[in-house]
Amino acid sequence: MGHSLLxxxxxxxxxxxPAHLLWAVFGVLLGNMVGVLPGLGxxxxxxxxxxxxxxxxxxxxxxxxxxxxxxxxxGGAIGAILLNLPSHPPHAVTCLDGYPMTRAGRxxxxxxxxxxxxxxxxxxGIVVMIFLSPYLVRIAFKFGPAEVSSIMLLGLLAGAxxxxxxxxxxxxxxxxxxxxxxxGTDVNTGVLRLTFGMPSLSDGVELGALCxxxxxxxxxxxxxxxxxxxxxxxxxxxxxMRPTRAELRRSVLPMLRGxxxxxxxxxxxxxxxxxxxxxxxxxxxxxxxxxxxxxxxxIEGVAAPEAASHSKTxxxxxxxxxxxxxxxxxxxxxxxxxILKGIEPGPQLITAHRDIFWGLVASFWIGNVxxxxxxxxMIGVWVRLLRxxxxxxxxxxxxxTCIGVYSGRNSLFDVGxxAVFGVLxxxxxxxxxxxSPVILGYVLGPLLEENFRRALLLSxxxxxxxxxxxxxxxxxxxxxxxLGVQLASWLRRLRMAxxxxxxxxx
Amino acid sequence: xxxxxxxxxxxxxxxxxxALGAGVAWSGHVYRVGSLTRMGAGYFPMLLGLLTLGxxxxxxxxxxxxxxxxPAPHDPRLQRRHGADPRGAALLLLSIVSFIVLGRYGGMxxxxxxxxxxxALADRANRLREVLLLAAAASLxxxxxxxxxxxxxxxxxxWG
Lengths: 506, 160
Known about the structure:
- The structure holds two protein chains of two kinds.
- By secondary structure, chain A is an all-alpha fold.
- Chain A is built from 21 helices and two strands.
- Chain A is 74% helix and 1% strand.
- In chain A, strands 1-2 form a two-stranded antiparallel sheet.
- In chain A, a hairpin with a 6-residue loop joins strand 1 and strand 2 (192-193).
- In chain A, helix 2 (18-36) runs parallel beside helix 16, helix 3 (42-49) packs parallel to helix 14 and helix 4 crosses helix 5.
- Chain A is globular.
- Chain B is mainly α.
- The relative contact order of chain B is 0.09.
- Chains A and B meet through helix 8, helix 9, helix 17, helix 18 and helix 19 of A and helix 1, helix 2, helix 3, helix 4 and helix 5 of B.
């Protein structure tokens, strides 16, 4: 442990060099801004700035790119809470309770709690990174395709059953999301699946179009001229923007739980922030004394997923750097940037490139402090942005969404996907189907399929491999528990239905 | 909301799910299913399609139950008191379509203008003057931020 502290000290020395600090700060600020803007995500921004790093030395390059990443996590929460516009899939969960809080006028408080939870969780994540890296790497080695499949299945089940309304509909939406994930070229065989003859679909459905279409556009389609959204009425004083003491107290435990979930999932390769936030939200709901109130604007539903997301983000760097296994697309991009610089990610990274690893760790902390300092006063600005009448915000948001989706692949076809998913989302909303499981299904479906196939290939078609391996069996047992809980509550509901005179219950 | 309406929604949903499941399962069949040892491209789609069929069936059967509770209780927050406004929704969709069409044939600035214009017109509360102003402002801002600032590969103007 002492060795790690020495390394950390060295890392701070690297991170605080003026040139490095400058680039880290730039990345953090840019990331924050990008996270707020609907449509543009960290992925797009990092890919746009990647060419810029070709001329830079490895350390400042990775500091900047990483800064954009976790800066956008902070900013993404702002868009999700205030505008119901998740610029990054993990924030889709934050919308569920964050946006209702805004509509109730407590948007500023939600943001305040989010910032605090994020900072706390990120700090914990960094500490974990520092001291547990060697152990986590050892565990990560034990994760084969069978384990990853089982954990994905658990994530999908949790996501399906924890959404609002009927869990059956949640499962249906998860399946729909997985189908959207199937669209494109099959990795193993090269066959074009579900592309309906459209070559633009051979790379699959664009994530941004899916996300924005289902959440933002669908919402606009259904609420235009119908619902009045509370924006900027009475003047909001600074006090309104601060969370009340009661709110703060209620968010401490969810924050801790969310951080725990994020840290645990951070170490597991192949899981991204999306599944982590879903599970954190599901856990909060299960643990809460008022599960039915989730979705109406509970601070617990905001603090937990955001904490999970931030601690996950930090811990996520461990498998990415030490094993070369990225947790999601952004990590993959960062990995690519490293490789371009001639730095091989792997177990030897910590020893061969001490300055990069520890400099990065130190800069995380500096960056998070900066983001906290920056964002807390800015909450007022963001909330004041809502003073703009909703009827004027919507067209602007639509435009931002269009151009954001376009900028992903310079493709107008993607904007077409946006429209299609907007319509689909509107249909789902009108038929009372929950939307968030679609995103989970879309992100996890392909991963599940790939690992499932790989596991079966390795075991030569033996399905029992999922039960023979202990970690995998454990996750499958958890799946059974989730299903069991659902079945139990369904049976309970059947029995509780008041018996009608003259007719026995089936 | 009356239970009958909820039931209708579930019925429509179940039908859609059945259609979707059948379609995807069929596509799985077309892509060759293979076996467990050598999964073909169609294995997973077939699986997904069958599962969706199952869910649609259960949902549909639930609506046939003669009395409450039927399928799981509906979340009151999910219920909407009225459907969408067709004119507004159509205008919003048209705004996105116009972005695509004008983006292809006219360039970023006309696309932005048309998109914001139509989207703003969707809300009945917006006055024409505000709408035009908003569209112009968005076009200018969009050009500055995305065109010049971020160097987005999107021609500001193009002819056909």
